[in-house]
Write a structure and sequence with these properties.
With 342 residues, the protein is an alpha/beta fold. It contains 15 helices and nine strands. 48% of the residues lie in helices and 12% in strands. The strands form two sheets. Strands 1-4-5-6-7-8-9 form a seven-stranded parallel sheet. A two-stranded antiparallel sheet has the order 2-3. It is globular, with a radius of gyration of 19 Å. The structure holds coproporphyrinogen III. The site of coproporphyrinogen III (CP3) has 21 residues, from β3.
Length: 342
């Protein structure tokens, strides 16, 4: 078993820096389009365990990343409580929320198993095939999931969810608690199916005021991590955010790793956490599109800044669809050829 990622998550520095990329399976790969073209919708594909298995393994076979991430989407949870989710080309996800927003209290408290089982079945299949590398499971954090649910079609400044939360704090608390429970369930189910670590995506956590952030983000992530760890004390947890301004200095009590967007300095976070937590990130995805000497220089800078910390190389956000595959090969080669002192 390649243990590079698990070692760093368990606070062990390795000679080689591990690497995987958010959205490593996806539109920049021609192999992905071949599978996708067989389906009428993206959501339908996420519920086909054979397609999920195949797509998850495509980037591992091609680029030899140090971990696979189960191919799915954070919005599967909304679909699994029977809220209609559609991916409209050029528009992104659109969620049908008008009726359910009127009857929030009637939202299902359980994941519809027909919708989530294919994901768990794919995890089992992948674990049989991928015996030498870890598999990552994931979910959104409650605030990020709520942004899609409440906004329907997301606004740039998240004005709808912010207005909703200020005006309807009772309902907002209800939604956040419900989503926390569903997320914990989904993560536990993925662990039971066989994933080796989990990542919680709080992509939209950067636009809240201080108190909102405390209530809807930090407190919830802590709660989810505790619920998961009560059952599975040793499961490593990575938390992705674009905001570390309000993050708890004791985060390493419930998380193993913080995954940083490119707008945050890894070096400053390393100093802030006094080297007590693993970090992941944070090359700008646009530099991976650009390639060439600019990309290599920045990759080396990140690697040198983090050479004495537990660290997993990644992007600051997901791979962009226009990314040339040659640049991905070059990134992996550059990371792998950098050696750290152990
Ligand atoms: O990382 C991986 O390879 C695993 C797969 C994965 C997808 N989505 C596949 C996907 C993961 C981890 C996600 C997480 C996700 N989904 C997040 C959190 C991380 C992030 O990127 O911020 C968010 C916010 C979503 C919601 C979402 N899903 C959006 C906004 C979109 C459309 C816009 C876009 O970036 O493509 C999706 C669709 C989606 N999810 C695609 C893929 C490969 C593209 C579907 C397609 O058109 O082929």
């Amino acid at each position: 078993m390649n243990k590079l990622i698990l070692d760093n998550l368990n606070y062990k520095i390795t000679e080689e820096t591990p690497v995987w990329l958010m959205r490593q399976a996806g539109r920049y790969m021609k192999e992905y389009h071949i599978v996708k073209n067989k389906f009428n919708s993206f959501m339908e594909m996420c519920k086909n365990s054979d397609a999920v298995t195949e797509i998850t393994l495509q980037p591992i076979k091609k680029f030899d990343f140090d971990a696979a991430i189960i191919f799915s989407d954070i919005l599967l949870i909304l679909d699994a409580i029977d809220i209609k989710v559609e991916f409209i080309p050029g528009k992104g996800p659109v969620i049908e929320n008008l009726e359910s927003l009127k009857t929030i209290k009637l939202l299902s408290r359980e994941l519809n198993s027909d919708k989530v089982k294919p994901c768990y079945k794919a995890i089992k299949n992948i674990k049989k095939e991928l015996t030498d590398k870890p598999l990552i499971g994931f979910s959104a954090a409650p605030w990020t999931l709520a942004t899609y649910y409440i906004e329907g079609n997301i606004t740039k400044d998240l004005s709808r969810i912010k207005s909703f939360s200020y005006k309807n704090s009772k309902e907002m608390n209800f939604i956040i608690d419900l989503f926390s429970d569903l997320i914990s369930q989904h993560l536990i189910n993925q662990i039971e199916a066989g994933v080796d670590l989990i990542q919680i995506f709080d992509t939209h956590s950067y636009q809240m005021d201080f108190y909102m952030h405390h209530n809807y983000s930090t407190r919830q992530v802590k709660k989810i991590a505790k619920t998961v760890r009560e059952k599975y004390p040793n499961i490593p947890i990575i938390y992705y955010s674009k905001n570390f301004q309000f993050l708890d200095k004791e985060a390493n009590n419930y998380l193993n790793c913080l995954s940083l967007n490119s707008n945050i300095s890894l070096k400053e976070q390393k100093e802030y956490f006094e080297g007590n937590i693993c970090l992941q990130g944070n090359l700008d995805p646009y530099l991976l599109v650009e390639g060439g000497e600019y990309m290599i220089k920045e990759i080396k800078k990140i690697l040198s800044e983090m050479k004495d910390n537990f660290f997993i190389f990644n992007l600051g956000h997901g791979i962009l669809p226009q990314t040339p595959v040659e640049n991905v090969f070059k990134l992996v080669e550059t990371v792998k050829s950098f050696k750290r002192k152990v």
